[in-house]
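Researcher: Re-running this chain for the archive, since the previous output was lost when a drive failed. Same request as before.
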Amino acid sequence: RLERHCGEAHTVSIPCTERHDALYVVGALDEAMELRGMRYHPIDIETSVIRAHKSVTECAVFTWTNLLVVVVELDGSEQEALDLVPLVTNVVLEEHYLVVGVVVVVDIGVIPINSRGEKQRMHLRDGFLADQLDPIYVAYNM
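Model: Regenerated structure tokens:
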């Protein structure tokens, strides 16, 4: 326990913030990805990608040989798959300053989710490496 003074109140709890401080809870440390010497939480990138287009129903990201891989579930025509690639790469670059190495567009339900509703990113990565995803479109931006 650490005793701290916050403003006028004396507290024993952690964390304590002053008037201009903020506490951000971003996700579990074991889920964090390290790219270009920085730590990124997958949910931040995934949320940006989902907001990029109305036909994107789900998204998952992981790293593969120091490349960022973005898997996008598409609820739309296969023609829209080509349109998603520049949207995905641009939103990730603009909001997170990261270059996407691979964009994989898949059908709905391909991204594995466990019974608690959590994305199984490592299972998805294993499926990608084993060429088992049956993608609609894959773009390698190397």
